[in-house]
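Hello forum,

I keep getting stuck at the same step: I have a sequence, I want structure tokens, and every attempt I make locally crashes halfway through. Rather than fight my setup again tonight, could one of you with a working pipeline run this one for me? It's a single chain of 159 residues.
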Amino acid sequence: MYQDLKLAEEDKEILRSSISWITLLIASADGKVDADELAWAEKLTQIRSYTLPDNLQEFYKEVGASYQSKIDTLIAELPEGNEAQIDFLSNNLTQVNQVLAKLDNKAAYTFYKSFTSFAEHVAKSSGGFLRFFSVSAEEKKLIDLPMITPIILEQDPEA
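Reply #2:
Ran it on my machine without issues. Output:
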């Protein structure tokens, strides 16, 4: 699916960058970027590059290839202050809406669900029992990525 998308390279770059934006949005939600969340997010991109259905494996391979450099660049660009960081990352993520609107419903839904699932996994990677499975109140506000318009999978009328 990903390799077959008829999107401009700029749009594909927005989709790839969204993983870094989501990572830092969730990791910084409680006021500090947690190294454990960053490490887990990087590992998650690698895991998804071979465990997800074929239609997203290539996407996560591409994300993983530049993940660390994007995170490093993005951290350097983050404004001072937690609220400013959340606003900056949220504003970046709003660009995803324009790209998803260019896709057919099934592809847009697949990316949307993958992004929200990714956010949830990053949020659960820190805190709680043995530092897993706990989501802070700040993360709960952002975990559903409210800046991205939800995509509902339309039913095929001929199915």
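The chain has a mean pLDDT of 87. If your local run keeps crashing, start a new thread with the error log.
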